[in-house]
Each structure stands twice: as C-alpha cells, then as structure tokens.
Amino acid sequence: MIKNILITGRPGVGKTTAVIKIISRLDLKPGGFYTEELRTEGERKGFKIKTFSGQEGILAHVDYREGPRVGKYGVDVGSFETIALPEVEEAVRAGKLIVIDEIGKMELFSARFKELVIKALNSPVPLLGVIKEKGDGFIDKIKGRKDVRLFTLTRENRDSTISEILGVLRVLKVVSTPKTSGG
C-alpha cells in the first residue's frame, strides 16, 4: 500500500514550495525539515535547513572550504545531522507526518541520514518528501519502492499536483479537514 509521497522534478520548478503549500493546507503539525536558499544581493550563496520546531542551520555555503562539495558549495554534514536528523527521528517516534526536503546529493553525504530515510519510509507514519530527479542506486531504490508514490513536478502541473497530493494525504487519513487555500 502507498503511504510515502515523494516529489521530484527539475531544479527550480518549486518542489520545496509545493511541500510548504501542502503543509500549510493541512490541519496538523508535521515533523522533519525543509531547505531554503541563502541569497545575498540576489546571488545564491548556499542553503539553510529549517525544522518545523523552529530550528535552523546552514546545510551548504560557498564560503565553506572543508568537507564534501557539491558544485561550488561546501556541505556542512555535521550541522545537517545535528539539526535535521533529530527532527525526523522525533516525527517517526511521535507518529507525525514526516517531511524530508530533500533526499539529494548534499544530504546523502550523511550515512546516518540514509539509514534514517529507510527507517522513516519503513515506519507506519506517512512521509512527504522531495527526492533528487536523477540519482545513484540509493535514489533509484527509494523511487522504486512499492509503498512510494512518486510525483514529477513541473511548472505547468504544480497546482494540480499539489491538489492530487492533498487528496492522497486525505485517503491516508493524515488529516481529516484540509484548510482552504485562502490566498
């Protein structure tokens, strides 16, 4: 049975924005994390991790010189593990909707994260996440799971995909009464 919802798509189509819109229309408090771009004078300098309990930290930045790199960004695996992973673990333990944004190249530098993704997918709690469009064996294995419904987001299908995901979450009884969009 499908209980895990993953969104994929090209960079910049609005995957994180879709997750935030979905969460805002649900009458519940999820657990987990999402990412935001860090910009200075219009230029992207890195990525911030934000949790639903209000914690935040830096995932990657152009000024980071140590640790693994993705393009021009140095990834702070320690910060990611300290801020994001306890939030996902707590969501699994507490039975909250698990939000993981994203299962991507930067996050996968953490072996603990990979283990936690599998634990979250295997838990009885539904997971709403973003997953890299193209990936290695780990990404492909997750996309191929029988309990995963994969949505490919585009600019053209964004609104209809958000509505469809909300419908799936209602069927999963994640929420009984969705909030109206109201703007």
Question: How is this structure best described in words?
Answer:
The chain is α/β, with parallel strands linked by helices and 183 residues long. It is 33% helix and 29% strand. It has a nine-stranded mixed beta sheet with strand order 5-6-4-3-2-7-8-1-9, with helices on both faces. Helix 3 (111-122) links the parallel strand 7 (98-103) and strand 8 (127-131). Helix 1 (15-24) packs across helix 5 (158-171) and helix 2 (77-94) runs parallel beside helix 3. The N and C termini lie far apart (34 Å).
Shape: globular
CATH superfamily (homologous) name: P-loop containing nucleotide triphosphate hydrolases
Uncertain runs: 176-183
CATH C-level name: Alpha Beta
Mean pLDDT: 92
How is the CATH topology named? Rossmann fold
Widest sheet, order of strands: 5-6-4-3-2-7-8-1-9
Order of helices and strands: EHEEEEEHEHEHEH
Oligomer: single chain
Question: What are the key terms here?
Answer:
globular, nine-stranded mixed β-sheet, alpha/beta, Rossmann fold, 183 residues, 9 strands
Quick gist of this model?
The protein is α/β, with parallel strands linked by helices and 183 residues long.
Layout of secondary structure:
Blueprint: E1 4-9, H1 15-24, E2 31-40, E3 43-51, E4 56-61, E5 69-70, E6 73-75, H2 77-94, E7 98-103, H3 111-122, E8 127-131, H4 137-143, E9 148-153, H5 158-171
Helix pairs in contact: 1-5, 2-3
